[in-house]
Amino acid sequence: MSLDDAQLMRYARHILLDEYGIEAQEKVSAAKVLIVGAGGLGSPAAYYLAAAGVGHITLVDDDEVDLSNLQRQILHNSERVGVNKAQSGQQTLQALNPLIIIEPLAQRLSDADLDRLMPQHDVVLDCTDNFATRHAINRAAVRHRVPIVSGAGIRFAGQISVYDLRDDQAPCYHCLFPEADDVQELRCATTGVLGPLVGMVGCIQAAEALKVIGGFGEPLVGRLLSVDALTMQWHTVRFRKDPKCSVCGSTT
Fold first, then answer.
1. Rg, the chain, Cα only
2. CA 53 → CA 59, 68, 143, distances in Å?
3. What is the C-alpha separation between 46 and 96, in angstroms, rounded?
4. pLDDT tens string 25-37
5. Which of 137, 131, 167 is nearest to 241 (CA)?
6. Which of 115, 162, 197, 247 suits a disulfide with 220, CB 3.0-4.6 Å?
7. How many degrees, rounded to 5, is the angle at CA 128 between CA 123 and CA 132?
């Protein structure tokens, strides 16, 4: 799609980047992104993708804004306590960038919902906080060959990776974190989380999504980027596709 004068002005600082340029901006402006989760990770990720001009953002969350969310979930404010997070996020993002479409879905996604939504989007951001939903998103993304930008954060620890399921040789989420019934999950409500930590992770998710959409740079495919915010140390671990993976192994 060609950009009009308002878009050229709004996105000028991205267009000035040689690696980005007008070509990537046109792809971003034509893109549809699915963001599952409008909380600590989804807030900064959605903010920056909306600011960058992603043409259509589908924001999914069935939860309501709680006072305890406001320490980190920057899409929301005190006046919206009790409002659905997807709808609250739509208000914030539409005010930030009226040139794009924000579609809120105030529901928990079933497997059928994921199968319906995946083919309609160019990339999905997993901004959820539980393994069951992460694995459901991964299975649907493998079926429909849609890239996932996945982030997680708890206490002072965060991690980000990209699963580009358009490539048969790329690993999926299950390759790195096999699904198991005995996995103990940590929740922010009981263990706490540093607000800026999820902001950092969500911002990196936005950057990785723009790279996937725009076709520039080197996304975090086959790499898990981790941060310890207590010491501010970053680590990268490389991993490969598991040929015996029960989710994506049969695609090779």
1. 17
2. 15, 30, 28
3. 11
4. 999 999 999 999 9
5. 167
6. 162
7. 100
